[in-house]
């Protein structure tokens, strides 16, 4: 994560001064983001995981990324890493996209990554929620949510995305 995925996912992304991370889970990326962002807030739905993240130098909110408890235009960047596939269905993913856009400032960036479907990916999620995101369809879905300048790219194991809330 530290040397490959996160640098690749955020290559060329200006996070600005107020970053929101959606679904950090155990916080592997959160700790790395905290060193890059002047102000970081993490939203985690799992109460146990949220509690474990507290007191690490960033704000932690227990909440649902499809119903964010923040005012419009609060953040300069919204990010999420390997969590979109944990949402129960594409409609929930689309609600997350709409919420990410809502809480971004005009000109703010939504960026992140997720896994591509493979045998290993399927095996990791045998007893877990797995709603893969099609990286080819993602630009259209983000545009529908109101983003502009949508870009995606893939590697053999993952895809990354970035999009801007229009000014």
From TrEMBL:
InterPro entries: Methyltransf_11 (IPR013216), rRNA_Ade_methylase_Trfase_N (IPR020598), SAM-dependent_MTases_sf (IPR029063). The keyword Cell membrane does not apply. It comes from the Bacteria. GO terms for molecular function: rRNA (adenine-N6,N6-)-dimethyltransferase activity. Pfam families: Methyltransf_11 (PF08241). The keyword Nucleotide-binding does not apply. SUPFAM superfamilies: S-adenosyl-L-methionine-dependent methyltransferases. Residues 9-125 form the Ribosomal RNA adenine methylase transferase N-terminal domain. Keywords: Methyltransferase, S-adenosyl-L-methionine, Transferase. Transmembrane segments: none annotated. This is Ribosomal RNA adenine methylase transferase N-terminal domain-containing protein.
């Amino acid at each position: 994560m530290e040397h490959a995925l996160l640098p690749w996912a955020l290559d060329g992304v200006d996070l600005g001064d107020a970053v929101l991370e959606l679904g950090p889970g155990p916080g592997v990326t959160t700790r790395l983001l905290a060193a890059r962002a002047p102000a970081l807030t993490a939203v985690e739905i799992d109460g146990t995981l949220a509690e474990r993240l507290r007191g690490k130098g960033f704000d932690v909110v227990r909440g649902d990324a499809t119903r964010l408890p923040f005012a419009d235009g609060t953040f300069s960047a919204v990010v999420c890493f390997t969590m979109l596939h944990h949402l129960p269905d594409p409609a929930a993913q689309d609600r997350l996209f709409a919420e990410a856009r809502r809480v971004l400032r005009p000109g703010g960036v939504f960026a992140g990554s997720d896994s591509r479907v493979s045998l290993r990916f399927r095996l990791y999620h045998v007893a877990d929620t797995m709603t893969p995101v099609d990286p080819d369809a993602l630009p259209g879905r983000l545009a529908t949510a109101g983003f502009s300048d949508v870009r995606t790219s893939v590697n053999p194991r993952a895809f990354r995305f970035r999009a801007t809330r229009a000014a």
